[in-house]
UniProtKB/TrEMBL annotation:
GO terms for cellular component: cytosol; riboflavin synthase complex. This is 6,7-dimethyl-8-ribityllumazine synthase. The gene is ribE. 5-amino-6-(D-ribitylamino)uracil binds at F22, A56, F57, E58, A80, I81, I82, Y113. Pfam families: DMRL_synthase. One of its GO terms (molecular function) is 6,7-dimethyl-8-ribityllumazine synthase activity.
Length: 159
């Protein structure tokens, strides 16, 4: 039996972090978590690009532009969509999710979903660094794991 799984090794990979300015109080905490993870895994600051966009809806387009660059190995998408009194939450959440997934499939690069979709500000705060951990950290960890897994799969296919 052959088992493949990604490691958490940086190997000189380069990352783009696409961050929503809307709900910046939350998204900046997610960014801090992602940067903490990447730095703990010895990713150099010069190998990290942070790109701010107006809101979550703009993330997929900018994620695709970043992923199309040859010097970007993975894109980490960060933001918070918090439910309000209108159906806006459902529309934005669905389109952002589909858009991010499509970018990954189209570019064949890890495009990591670090978007919080919560019912309240309190839930978003919990998931951005308090009792529920920091989902930005988790997203960055997923990016490292996926990069290594895809490299292992590619190398394994040649054997």
């Amino acid at each position: 039996m052959k088992v493949m799984e990604g490691k958490l090794i940086s190997k000189g990979y380069k990352f783009a972090l696409v961050v929503s300015r809307f709900n910046e109080f939350i998204s900046s905490r997610l960014l801090e978590g992602a940067l903490d993870c990447l730095r703990r895994h010895e990713v150099n600051d010069e190998d990290i690009s942070v790109i701010w966009v107006p809101g979550a809806f703009e993330i997929p387009l900018v994620a695709k532009e970043a992923a199309l660059k040859k010097d970007i190995d993975a894109v980490i998408c960060l933001g918070a969509i918090i439910r309000g009194a209108t159906p806006h939450f459902e529309y934005i959440s669905a389109e952002v999710t589909k858009g991010i997934a499509a970018v990954g499939l189209e570019t064949r690069k890890p495009i990591i979903y670090g978007i919080l979709t919560t019912d309240s500000i309190d839930q978003a705060i919990e998931r951005s660094g308090t009792k529920a951990g920091n989902k930005g950290f988790t997203a960055a960890s997923s990016a490292l794991e996926m990069l290594n897994l895809l490299a292992e799969m590619k190398n394994g296919a040649k054997a």
